[in-house]
Amino acid sequence: MSDNGLKAVLILMGGFFLLALVLLERPDYLSTPAMLGGIIAAQVILAAVCRFKQAFFLALMIAFVWAGTNVPDQTVWLQGRWFVLGIGAVTGLAIYMKDHNHHFSTFHLIASFCVLSAAVSGLVSAYPEESLLKALSLLLLFVYASSGARIAIPVFHPEKFFHGLLVVCEFLSYFTSLCYFVFRWEFYGTSNSLGAVMGVVVIPILLWGVLTAHTLNSRRRLGFAVLLAILALMTSFARAAICAGMVSCLTMCIALRQYRLLAKGLAFAVVLAVAAVMFVPRQSEAPTWDGSQSVFDMFVFKGKPEQGAFGSRKGPWQQTWEVIKEHPWFGSGFGTSQTGDDLTNIQTKYTGSHIDTRVVREHGNSYLAIAEWVGLLGVLPFYSLIGMTLLNVRKVFSKVRVTGNAFLPAIPAAAVVLAGLVEAMFEDGLFAVGYYLCVLVWALAFILVDLIHYSESGQHAQESVPSENWGGLVPASAGQ
């Protein structure tokens, strides 16, 4: 038996012995549903660690989605997700450092400065314990994104990862439609969360799937999934998510010169928007339609034209500016905000909700939020990281514009990252590490760095010749 096999046997024997000892001492553990659920979850995470490259990314996203959606045992995963992220960061870094081809760039250096800035702001925060915990969560996310997320992408066939992501997004489109249109179950909790999942992730990736479909049937199937996702997005009335999905899809279609598909998509989007207002049952948070308002008013003003398009954002924006003026250099502390409210009342109000901080306040803009949290000095590395991410997105779509290659594996990553950055202009989630979209967007942003690096070094031979998984087809001709 090899040394590695002997070590595995010894570890398994030790684990079984420890489990037997615990059960002999406390047999009541097996009669507790929470404990049984914890044991099962631990086994699933252990199995994901054993197949880290293939399965852990999915397990991590499931843990974060479970904590942020309207599902049973959600509160358990509000704490459990941090253990999963910590395991992913430590294990991923250990595995990644064993690879002699690993590399770190300026992008990763700037990310480390972001963590340092968050920690410094936490030390001067009015709520240092809360802020430092937030900084720790950012550290875990960036460590995992710099290591574990990167090794989830096969170096020579990265399209396999995105093909799996495409399958997940197609499932989410059907599952979301059943939840919201048939069973009336608001799975994502809030309308903004529904819109963000559809507009930032599902629609851009499904559109890429349509562009790279290797058969007519798969193209039609994915096209139908796109229409369902657009309808779900429209019923959310989440303007930030609608704008994000539109910008991402427009950029993708223009880069690939898919003008006919773009025109068809816009026409279908208008029809589905009308259907969302007039025919499809709306969610509890959706604006009410009395028949006198136009479809334009319902989406732009949410049925309240007297407040203007940004009526719900002006108050949070103004309050954020006031805090920046009061604490211009080091901010209020990463992840914490000054509300002027009694914390006891805030905790009582949000009991049972998905709230990551004791200090709850909306900012209406992730870029203003991070400026308030870390101050004008601390925000420089964050803005630099965002700027480098935008440059990477630009590199991808510039190359796509020149080559017309829809099979470029960086396209879906760039599309999701671009949509996430656009949505952050009107929402707070870009640096809210507890939010599952924050984890996904930043993981793909770090993955995008590697995809561009390998592309420029010529290690991705499949960019010009699609792999067998894609039917060996060449991209659709320009101008279709």
State the end-to-end distance: 59 Å
Please, what is the average pLDDT? 83
- Uncertain segments of ≥5 residues (pLDDT<50)? 342-358, 461-480
What structural class is derived from the secondary structure elements?
mainly alpha
Give the biggest beta sheet: none
Number of helices: 18
Rg calc? 23 Å
Order of helices and strands: HHHHHHHHHHHHHHHHHH
In one word, what is the shape? globular
Number of separate strands: 0
- Give the proportion of residues in helices: 55-70%
Q: What is the count of distinct domains? A: 1
Q: Strand share of the residues? A: under 5%
Question: What are its keywords?
Answer:
mainly alpha; single chain; 480 residues; 69% helix
Structure characterization notes:
With 480 residues, this protein is mostly helical. It is globular, with a radius of gyration of 23 Å. The protein contains 18 helices and no strands. It has one domain.
In short:
The chain is mostly helical and 480 residues long.
Task: Describe the secondary structure blueprint for this structure.
Elements (H helix, E strand, L loop, with lengths): L2 H23 L7 H18 L1 H17 L5 H25 L7 H18 L4 H19 L1 H4 L7 H24 L8 H22 L3 H21 L2 H17 L3 H20 L16 H6 L10 H16 L16 H7 L16 H38 L6 H14 L12 H21 L24
